[in-house]
């Protein structure tokens, strides 16, 4: 037995046995240590590795704030939609489903297959963005592996082209691109939330774990405009342009007391809900971006400057005979000659005499005219904060020469926007008090600042009422039942190719306010390049002012102040001399 290694007690190689037992014990200890290490010491690392392979954070979309008019009528809203995307590396093997997918996505099979094959090495492509929930659910109902959906929002504009230039629009990612959508983009944007989910290796949802953070919607924006007035302004401008076959046009309506913009429209316009054929020129808010020489609409401001100096009284007279005036090499001309060649200050505005206005301006000096125009906001930003706003040009000279003074007094040599023109007349209507303009609704009436002498402003108000109501006045601007005040203008367009003016290209203008007894609304009408039936401001722009002012005053329940005129619908046609501004 000794020969075979057995001991007398019967044990076989006890040291080997003990070695095996020791090795097994060490293995158990190692395994136990590894288990403890993985579950205690390296728990965070392993958990993070597992999360990377299965846990996903899905964004919760936040809808953009709503834009409304002053009465709460929606101008821009966000509606829920579905965006369909695909993992081409997964979808490339699902060719049997391609025909059905192409059909419900609204595309042809060849285009769909070519696009998918071209992106076969990618893991993400959009199949179609912002589908209606019903159409999106039809795609997902096919249950094709590699096709997924994302909840998003799409911007919709209920007023369409009527408020397009003012409201603007967003891009496919709900980022403001034009108008107030751009100006107030940060205010309107919401903050997306975050949701934690578990997915398998193919991206399929296993479990919705928890909401990490809730989505926070954007802030709403209440504008100063009244959608009813906006529709009226849009209609009147469209009809006026159609009648005279004009190239473009703008209307701005202001609340005289609060400075709020009640309406702002332009033509041509566009539909922000369908921009497939949109041209860049159609997006321009001409009322606040386009500048022009205002012509005779500036004469009331110059007249206010003359009255403010105290050198002139309303009854003072000016000899305008023979209807022309020579200053150096520059000849000033009137359209019509006054009987006897003598006009008082009111007559200068009524007859729109360039010669008479020039003589008054030369007496008070160009600086006085300049200061009055600057006081009513010309050559300055309006403070509306609209993207791309232009300030125009109000010249200022160390030494005012006669030609420059005369031209400025009747609206040449400077440039303004339609918004600035409306603001200037609203200040006249507000007894010379300037209140801040606003595109947002104002809850409290601002105090404002006296920028023109009250007495001079009130005197010019009466003169402008006479411009419309006199026998030879701008009768097309009259409003049955109301006294209104205003002034027409006809400005030749400057040439873009050379110095000087175009031969047969004009802007027809009218600016005014009403009712004259207690002004509530100021309106500026600009019609660009009328080509049929005439081009004078009193002929083209005045009827647009009349139609809009008439409907607006009634819509705002403003009491008539001229009841004796209620039955006077057809007005006598005055001489042609009253047509031009």
TrEMBL record:
It is found in: Membrane. Pathway: Cell wall biogenesis; peptidoglycan biosynthesis. Its EC number is 3.4.16.4. Residues 249-549 form the Penicillin-binding protein transpeptidase domain. GO terms for cellular component: plasma membrane. The keyword Cell division applies. This is Peptidoglycan D,D-transpeptidase FtsI. Residues 59-208 form the Penicillin-binding protein dimerisation domain. It comes from Halopseudomonas sabulinigri. Its main location: membrane.
